[in-house]
Amino acid sequence: MSSAQQPxxxxxxxxxxxxxxxxxxxxxxxxxxxxxxxxxxxxxxxPASERQVHRAIMLGSVAYVGLLALPxxxxxxxxxAMLTPFGAAIAPLIYAAxxxxxxxxxxxxxxxxxxxLERLLSFLRxxxxxxxxxxxxxxxxxxxxxxxxxxxxxxxxxxALRHRYLALAVSVxxxxxxxxxxxxGIMLMAGLSGIFAPVPTLVAVALAVSPVPLAVYIxxx
Amino acid sequence: xxxxxLKGADVGKTMTTILKTAAFAVAVLATGAxxxxxxxxxxxxxxxxxxxxxxxxxxxxxxxxxxxxVQETGAAMPETVLSFVDGQFxxxxxxxxxxxxxxxxxxxxxxxxxxxxATTRCPEAPFTVVWYGTVVGDEAQIAGTWTxxxxxxxxxxxxxxxxxxxxxxxxxxxxx
Lengths: 221, 176
Description:
heterodimer, A: 77% helix, B: 176 residues, alpha+beta, 10-stranded antiparallel sheet
């Protein structure tokens, strides 16, 4: 490394540190806001209200699984909205629903013919998702995964292909991944690529989506 | 190969794919549900003190208007009237909330103090309420738990610092 590069590297470290501090600040503020909202809603579960709450949770879970599995559809907010009032008690359900949703998207990508998938997404008027599948159709399996890393240096793509399950876990967790299809889109492409075996994929997803529900479950328990 | 044979092969392939996808979805959903149930932590019902419990009769033809607090939230529990008739027990609030009906109660007497307990279950939802109380004269001290056990969560409200005063049998509670 040349001496001319050192100052910018130092500045980069400071910028990263500032971003981490800002991220922690946002998480703390969001937690505080969540508690305020929970107190304001006063969602005390009692015999007279539990059955309505149960119905709402079941409906919310189905919507969560369905929406999260769709490419370019932000569904994580539903999970967070359910975690906010009910906390640790609902964390296992949200966690399992997230894993189920990701695996359903993966399964659809792996099992359905790509042309049928494209037609299905077009029929549902999900144009961006259909375009994503259309772009992936003529590509080789490895190239489909590389598509998710569009613009990345070839070495990064090669590294991601070598450690593809790690890359999958990271990309599912990256904030702003909605730009490349969101969790559902990423898992759909992983299924379409055909280079992800079901069991290691399940393990990767189960670990990747665990931090938030696990933290809520442990801290709330 | 003839056209109709080709078409039949395509239909068969499509059906296989659909069945495979459906089987995969069912397997994923079942695994998810099983994992949630395994992670679901059970909460024990109220532990009723040991004693020479017998089929209840000591409190027959009496009713108590009860107010108290929910331990977990600190909020006031919905007021209720506990009624004792012919060895059967009913909470008016539980009856309104989930049609618990009349249930057998147990009791025993220790000097002037009458101990009672009843475990009631809602036929329409997985609710279990365990009541325990002591009655001296016209005053009652009540404790217990309401527990709901769903496949994905177990929720409990503990009744604490609840006191009851004698009222006429058949007294209704206000909506408050």
